[in-house]
Design brief:
This protein has 337 residues and is an alpha/beta fold. Helix content is 50%, strand content 20%. It folds into 3 domains: 124 residues, 3-Layer(aba) Sandwich (Rossmann fold), CATH 3.40.50.2300; 108 residues, 2-Layer Sandwich (Beta-Lactamase), CATH 3.30.450.20; 66 residues, Arc Repressor Mutant, subunit A (Orthogonal Bundle), CATH 1.10.10.10. The protein contains 14 helices and 10 strands.
């Protein structure tokens, strides 16, 4: 038996304390003894015990009162009560108060050791479950904090009902809707018609792949979708999605991360508004060419190049040349195929 477990034997009869502690120490337990309830509580105030073997009838303080105090203050400690036959009713009371079991005097060594072993095995299992639950709660809390503190919106949608089952609070900053409002919305209320059609077509394609023998269960799809905002406007998002799977390996939910790409879409729209000549000149500007250089390359006058550049800056909402170059580089405006 492992010496990991520490047991406190409490009995006012010295011969019982001595014989029982000797038996337990021989078995491999670490043992401390106490001759009264008061001594028991005093010892427990400075030492931790996995198990207390507690006599019910003691002169200074009843075992029932000691049990109540132990269970109130030392919730991780198990208690086995020991009682004479005439005190069986009290023993049942202690059982109801949280004692693991009670043993009648006189007891056999085998009976006592088996009861202790069963008690400590259950204690070990209980602690393992508590540890796993604690780790799970901590893990869930970490992921919750992560989800609630990123700008991107993390969400899940049920594969059958197509209703949102989770969405991070960052959705409020993106669409102006509360988490509760988003959870209550249908896809029709979330996406513009064209984006809804794209999303449903993509889902249909992905579900068809599920019936192909050779498939990647961890594959992802990325879509650009236009979502409706609470104020009636829309916002463009890049949604990266994958399936969450059940025990049978089949999809049960869609997990997605959506990122605001409205500015990028605005840049793309602005770029589409540039003429081929303006885009050509913009490329030369980004490459560090002066108006004179560009004029010579394109066989234009410097004044004409300046006119193109000014018109281009007006379309893009940019006031000076450094900002134009910075804007172009940041948003990959050039080159444009």
């Amino acid at each position: 038996m492992s010496s990991t477990y520490k047991i406190l034997v409490v009995d006012d009869e010295q011969i019982i304390r001595k014989s029982l502690s000797g038996l337990l120490e021989y078995t491999g337990y670490e043992v401390v003894t106490a001759g009264s309830g008061t001594e028991c509580l005093h010892i427990m105030s400075s030492q931790y015990f996995d198990l207390v073997i507690l006599d019910i009838v003691m002169p200074d303080m009843s075992g029932i009162e000691v049990l109540q105090r132990i269970k109130k203050k030392y919730k991780g400690t198990e208690v086995i009560t020991v009682t004479g036959y005439a005190d069986k009713e009290k023993a049942i009371t202690t059982f109801r108060l949280g004692a693991y079991d009670f043993i009648e005097k006189p007891f056999e060594s085998v009976e006592m050791l088996n009861t202790i072993a069963n008690c400590l095995n259950q204690l070990k299992l209980k602690r393992e479950i508590e540890r796993k639950n604690r780790e799970l709660r901590e893990s869930e809390e970490r992921y919750r904090l992560l989800a609630e503190n990123v700008a991107d919106v993390i969400w899940t949608i049920d594969i059958k009902s197509l209703r949102t089952t989770y969405v991070s609070s960052s959705v409020t900053g993106l669409r102006g809707c509360s988490v509760e409002e988003v959870m209550a919305q249908t896809l029709e209320e979330t996406l513009t018609p064209s984006s809804l059609d794209l999303a449903m077509k993509t889902l249909e394609e992905e579900m068809a792949i599920e019936y192909v023998e050779q498939k990647d269960p961890f594959r992802t799809r990325t879509l650009e979708l236009e979502s409706k905002c609470k104020d009636g406007s829309t916002v463009w998002t890049e949604a990266k999605m994958t399936f969450l799977r059940g025990a049978d390996g089949m999809p049960i939910e869609i997990l997605g991360v959506s990122r605001d790409i409205t500015k990028r879409k605005q840049v793309e729209q602005a770029l589409r508004g540039l003429s081929p000549r303006e885009r050509e000149i913009l490329q030369f500007v980004v490459d560090g060419k002066t108006s004179a250089d560009i004029a010579e390359i394109l066989s234009l006058s410097p004044k004409t190049v300046e006119t193109y550049r000014s018109r281009m800056m007006g379309k893009l909402g940019i006031r000076n040349l450094p900002d134009l170059i910075k804007f172009a580089i940041q948003h990959c405006l050039t080159p444009l195929e």
